[in-house]
Amino acid sequence: MSIAKAAKQFALAGLISILVGSWTLAHAQEPLKVRIGWAVAPAQLTPILFAQGGIAKHLGQSYTLEPMRFAGSSLTLQALSTGDLDIAPMTFNVLGPAILNAGLIDLRIIADEIRDGVEGYETNRYMVLKDGPIQKIEDLKGKVVAVNGIGGGQDIFMRVMLRRHGLETPRDYTVIEAPFPSMGSLMIERKADLVVGVKPFILDPAFRAAGRILFTQRDAVGMTDFLFLTARADFIQKNRAALVDFFEDDIRATRWYMDPANHQAAAAIVANFLKMPPERLGWIFTNEDFYRNPNLHPDVGAIQRNVDMLGEFGFIQGKVDVAKQSDLSLVDEAAKRAN
After folding, report:
1. Could you give the CA distance from residue 156 to residue 162 in angstroms, rounded to a whole number?
2. In the chain, domain spans
3. Domain 31-117+224-338 shares a fold with domain 125-221
4. How do strand 125-129 and strand 195-197 relate by DSSP bridges?
5. How far apart are CA 179 and CA 62, in angstroms?
6. How many whole angstroms separate alpha carbon 95 and alpha carbon 142?
7. What is the rounded distance in angstroms from the CA atom of residue 247 to the CA atom of residue 32?
8. CA distance 186 to 153
9. In sequence order, what are the residues at sequence separation of 6 or more whose Cβ sits closer than 8 angstroms to the Cβ of residue 305?
10. What does each C-alpha distance from 208 to 116, 178, 185, 191, 201 come to in angstroms?
11. CATH superfamily for domain 31-117+224-338
12. DSSP 147-216
């Protein structure tokens, strides 16, 4: 081989090496796209999490955020199992079936969102017409109940309460699905006899004027760690560093929303997102709102009690060890960095 030919081959090999190295480096530095499900804001902050600029230090660097809306937690589970979602908000009633029935034994609880029924904080309501025929739970026999998703949290809480009063579906009542914003009109138009009232929709003047509370979520199941975030173990292992970065930003954002000094700005963000007057949002991020842990740390014991309750009522067959299905190392590390 001539010296000239060898030199050309050497130069070509060097060029290829540089191009491959550059591609590898660019690929390695590409931010992780984090796809997170959500159902309703501002109970879930996901779609407005970083609306206030300057909080997310790592956004666009180690990760990007893609909020994805779902009607209920059972649908997010489907997306998580098919790989169309990375982090799924989940309620305890979905956690058990996900592990016992769907075979997602690698599912891990990784962070908290909201808790219902904490002393001094908000709880969801189950509403009936003030001037309607339903005076007690037993009066729901033969009636129609509306929930946001069959098999979701609000559906199970309702079934638990009605079962305690001798009512079972479909034998004694009918369950229909409807989005939260439609609950008030369904009740007022007498298309449903019992509906779920959650903020901010329950604050609609017509809804408030026409309805009254028959029972609350706290009445039905006590304090619940109502929504927590889950991911699969393999996704956590492969993307741990980026996920810690994300949760560091998440913790900072959550604390910003909860800070009374930021209340006016926070209310304006929510009002803009929901397309409603900010004066109707004085309750958000106060004791009239759901409880949020400032370190995003779930109450594993509460989740375990609620999962056990599902077994007692026959909603699941088998035992789930919630602690073994939890990986709180991400938020624990993130909280230390956020302090």
Report:
1. 10
2. 1-29, 31-117+224-338, 125-221
3. yes
4. antiparallel
5. 35
6. 31
7. 13
8. 20
9. 222
10. 20, 18, 11, 17, 9
11. Periplasmic binding protein-like II (3.40.190.10)
12. ESSTTSHHHHHHHHHHHHTT--TTTT-EEEE--GGGHHHHHHTTS-SBEEE-TTGGG-HHHHHHEEEEEE
> 10 Å Cβ neighbour count for 169?
15
Residues 259, 256: Cα–Cα separation, whole Å: 5
Q: Which CATH architecture has domain 125-221?
A: 3-Layer(aba) Sandwich (3.40)
- List, in sequence order, every residue forming a beta bridge with 215; answer none if it has no partner: 126
Which among 185, 193, 186 has a CA at the least distance from the CA of 133? 193
The encoded tokens of residue 142 equal 């033969």
pTM summary value:
0.78
**What type of residue is 186?**
L
- The pair of structure tokens assigned to 202 is 């329950």
Look-up of token digits 């001798």:
166
Each residue's pLDDT expressed in tens, for the chain with a length of 339 residues: 555 554 455 445 454 454 444 444 444 579 999 999 998 888 899 999 999 999 999 999 999 999 999 877 778 888 998 999 999 998 888 899 899 988 899 999 999 999 999 999 999 999 999 999 999 999 999 999 999 888 778 898 899 999 999 999 999 999 999 999 999 999 999 999 999 999 878 989 999 999 999 999 999 988 899 899 999 999 999 999 999 999 999 999 999 999 999 999 999 999 999 998 888 889 999 999 999 999 999 999 999 998 988 888 788 889 999 999 999 999 999 999 998
Maximum CA extent, the chain:
100
